[in-house]
Automatic annotation (TrEMBL):
Top EC class for this record: hydrolase
Keywords: Cytoplasm, Endonuclease, Hydrolase, Manganese, Metal-binding, Nuclease
Pfam families: RNase_HII (PF01351)
Leader peptide range in chain numbering: none
Database matches in InterPro entries: RNase_HII (IPR022898), RNase_HII/HIII (IPR001352), RNase_HII/HIII_dom (IPR024567), RNaseH-like_sf (IPR012337), RNaseH_sf (IPR036397)
Family affiliation: Belongs to the RNase HII family.
PANTHER family (alphabetical): RIBONUCLEASE H2 SUBUNIT A (PTHR10954), RIBONUCLEASE HII (PTHR10954:SF18)
Protein name: Ribonuclease HII
Location (main, coarse): cytoplasm
Segments forming domain RNase H type-2: 16-206
Amino acid sequence: MSNKVYNLKAYYKSDTLEAGCDEAGRGCLAGPVFAAAVILPPDFENSHLTDSKKLTAKQRLAARTIIEENAISWAVAMVNNQEIDEINILNASFLAMHRALDQLKKAPEHILIDGHRFTPYKSIPHECIIKGDGLYLSIAAASVLAKTYRDEYMLKIHEQFPQYRWNKNKGYPTKDHREAIREHGITPFHRRSYNLFDRQQKIPFPE
């Protein structure tokens, strides 16, 4: 875990079974968007847990073990790139969160969402919190799970298409990823609704 100390809040509403939700992979050119939902015990404490982007890969995996061992309930779900192309990435992110919430062994009484928008889940009240993964432990925990499970997925599909270097860029629009697309075209895992090529280039998608 990180040596840096963070003091995130344990809950938004006291005496409430509260689930934190976050996603990973919205800005990627390839692969699914993943989301996680986590219900932590009200007395859960971890001063080294925060937004997954502030942690190293090793720290995230260490945090994941602690989260999975201590959470009241947790779940991870994904929406694939074809679904993203059909319903757009914002709706896909909401759908991934709904799918994660569906898998929780206990239904939450309140939901904390990282961000400023969300499609209501059943009749459960929710709160959208901008940069919530750096404010609340349950959202931070969800960010860690979503990120680590998505990274593992990208490592698996990297084996099929190593030229795109998804083991390094995880599908994000890095220079090497865009250059690989220009050289090799796209894969079944690329999001066709995204700007995969430089805007100046008019390269048709291979069928």
